[in-house]
């Protein structure tokens, strides 16, 4: 407890913790719309497109001025989004192809500019590499105001255009048919994503920023089918991942914050993919197992009822070999035991035969009739 209090007494730790949490919440909120619009690669393209802007901001300012660097990153990110939209609308290429082109071209330009700057030398140029992978320790308290302002502005826009963003995310064609300015709405969402990327360059960097945008939203999508809860849960997962990554990084010497934040968010995605109710892989496996069990039970009940009907005897005892021949294979013992426990069948003797026999109970006849849609055959009194 004392160690934890000492940790929070550090101003740098508190600043990084708050910055990571705010960035995670902002990224999670906006990433939810990108995931629903099936534009998960958008964040990757815009984050890589920010690199040439970082370099241009450095060249214009003549040094590593944070305001110029972030402004340049936003401008090239917005330009990349515009180019992507123009490619999709003016050519026959699909969105994924346009995003791939924008990502590779802009990132290549950024690498060339970065190489030119480093070739010129200078102490300031060395700090540009931190924008590739992030450097949480470089975050200042003044940067928190910038992140907070961007977050509040994005939240205000989302709340103001909630209905429109919701419609565009789920059915853009219907929104267009209803007269909504789909292009402007999509551009607004894209600009906000670019702002989130710019805000996260120092913490996570160009390469890993896409994970912070997509991972919380992907995890939240597993737990809910409603947009409102998904956005809130995605923001909460992003904030928790950011705060958790900052704390782990602060307690472990030499461990970078950005990659830890991404790893925590990815771990949440993996857990969600496994155990999320209704959609998790484990739940699907259990559902498939229950479905197979219902089919097996239904086949056995139908076979017993069919044989009883053929012999005009509702209580006809069916021998094991006869049941195996009719089904092609004997049901597992646990399925037979389950049917007996549910009171649908019962084991009977049929002298002089010594092999196992089963017959349907009244409840079994009712269940078999319900499954087949046929009227129930009454047991003779």
From TrEMBL:
InterPro entries: ABC_BtuC-like, ABC_TroCD. The keyword S-adenosyl-L-methionine does not apply. Its main location: membrane. Pfam families: ABC-3. It is a multi-pass membrane protein. Keywords: Cell membrane, Membrane, Transmembrane, Transmembrane helix, Transport. Residues 348-381 are annotated as: Disordered. It comes from the Bacteria. The keyword Membrane applies. It is found in: Cell membrane. The chain crosses the membrane at residues 12-36, 69-88, 97-117, 123-140, 145-162, 189-215, 227-248, 260-282. Belongs to the ABC-3 integral membrane protein family. This is Metal ABC transporter permease. It comes from Roseinatronobacter alkalisoli.
